[in-house]
Amino acid sequence: MKEENILGKEKIGKLILKFGIPCIISLLVNSLYNMVDQIFIGWGVGYLGNGATNIVFPLVMIALAFSLMIGDGSSAYLSLRLGEQKKEEAAKGVGNGLLLSVIISCSLCVGTLLFLPQLLTLFGCTEALREYALSYGRIIAIGLPFMMIGTSLNSVIRADGSPKYSMVSMVSGAVLNTILDPILIFVFKMGVVGAAIATIFSQFITFVLNIAYVRKFKCINIKRESFKLKGIVVRKILTLGISSFITEMSFVCVATVQNNLFAKYGIDSKYGPDIPITVLGIVMKINQILTSIIIGVSAGTQPIFGYNYGARKFDRVKKTLKAVLGIGVVISTIAFILFQTIPDKLISIFGSGNELYMEFACIAFRTFLLLCICNGLQIPSGMFFQAIGKSSKSAILSLSRQVLFLIPAMFVFGKLFGVIGVLYAGPVADGLAFILATVFLIHEVRNLNKKAKKSETLVDDTSTDNKLRKNIVITISRQYGSGGRYIGRLIADILGIKLYDKEFVEKLSKETGLAEEYIEDNEEKRKIIDILNSGYYAGLNNSDDLFIKESELIKEVANKESCVIIGRCADFILKDRENVIRVFVYGSLEDRIKRAIDIYGMDKEKALKEIKRIDKLRSNHYKYYTEEEWGDSSNYDICINSDALGVDKSAELICKMVKEKEKIIK
């Protein structure tokens, strides 16, 4: 008997520490990277120097967005192809990702150097900040290839099973940056230029360490051919990584809007535009330190949530949820107390300023972060829903504060109340995101309580009377309502072989420890919104992970026995095998609606909607994992209109085809 996974039996607190601490450390390193520059610039140059780095910051975030898109996409591609036992394809994904990173980073470097003045204007740069921003931005632009390639490789190195190496390379860069900053700024009197040079030297160290790892991959062997760009691989990488890109670009949008509104309304206030731009940039970076801890803890609980939800251990799911929410609220409460009681001390870490500077800093902390306690619930909620496969809710919560609430609130309150109005947008966005997360959580906890009361009975129908002399597998893809599953059942009965559909879910459940309900909720479904549900620490989403496990089981059963497999891209997974017959079953819309009404008891309108919805999900799923079109006749050995012959005759026709196939296979 297989020993139970520690996720299902170890103490929740121990698991959170085990999985959460590496995430927290990595996130804190990233956050401190930017903060260290600003601390030394603040003391060595003054607050205008810090304002300049805040203006350049959106450019850095754009570079990071591309880096994570390529890195996370390549790492997910690596995991998927390794799951399919396709090591050469996996190597191509990493090679293509690395080359793509080189091309995009060099292009971004050149583009930034050519159009830096225009970009700074777009990001809200004022005349007082322009000279500093140009000096800092030009050097940062030169280092973009090192930063982007190093960051992209970090994700791939983690996916290769070397998270410690990845962390060491990141920490090495951060430590070097901390050492070089004071030397170049104070000893050599280089100001913002020194801070920028320290940054790119540090990024170069991370780059060198990660490039050195390319020859040490554990799971793949990178060859020269791996670096030949292939359109289908590049598209897949970008698709897998698009969620990370969208998430980072949302921060770019917020920073750009914020800077421009401060530049616009600051002119009419006693603070001017430069103080608000500088101060809020620092305020957000300080807050990022505390939210990094919450994000790290939340990311660490994702495997705990996923496994126990799947294993129907709903009490453990609720305990984990209670623990992570409790930790989040404690951390955000500490942050709230600090922001409200000692804002002057916090801003002083980044250098001194005049009386107006300190005044606005205190107002910014106390106003913009008034409801930061809400982050302790909102952030873990988004990751909780991602972990249990609720992609729509997770995506909405992930983008709600930044895009849906904060940016519109900045425009509205800025117009009404000027500079201070932009600050009001912070608590408004936090409060609305909190309400939304609370509503989603209450509903889901009630569902967990209902599911906990249900009992399940697994049926293992293994009785067959195989009439085939050779091992033959029939894969059936089908339009919803075409009768494809019933045809598959008839074929299995006629030939005396096993049918894998719901039965396949049972087998997967026993093999993985995941509940049948969980598998059914996450397999063979691909929604457009799912692109928002993989990320820097999430790794593969639920559908990707299940696809890998199902692929392994499909190959396993195909090796052992003759059988009929319904859906699940089995035709693609087994396409290179001689003993496979690939079938696609379709029917007229009118007949499929009638079948849905007769079998499922739907009314005509609901049947039509369900047919379109399920067919779209199946098509998206097939396209996503195979890069081919679902229902394209060239992907199948036979396409049958079930209405032309009826399901019984269709099954008999396929069985005759199986008998003929049996004669010609070796």
Question: Could you give a quick summary of the protein structure above?
Answer:
The chain has 666 residues and is mainly α.
Structural notes for this entry:
This protein is mainly alpha-helical and 666 residues long. It has 3 domains: 1-23 and 267-454, no CATH class; 45-266, no CATH class; 473-664, Rossmann fold, CATH 3.40.50.300. It is 74% helix and 4% strand. The protein has 23 helices and 5 strands. It has helices at 12-44, 47-83, 87-122, 127-142, 144-159, 163-187, 191-213, 231-266, 274-310, 314-341, 343-348, 355-368, 375-387, 391-453, 484-495, 502-512, 516-522, 542-560, 570-573, 589-600, 604-626, 642-645, 647-664; strands at 473-478, 498-500, 563-566, 580-586, 638-641. Strands 2-3-1-4-5 form a 5-stranded parallel sheet, sandwiched between helices. Helix 2 runs parallel beside helix 9. The protein is elongated. Mean pLDDT is 87; it is low at 455-463 and 534-539.
Task: List the keywords.
single chain, 666 residues, mainly alpha, Rossmann fold, five-stranded parallel sheet
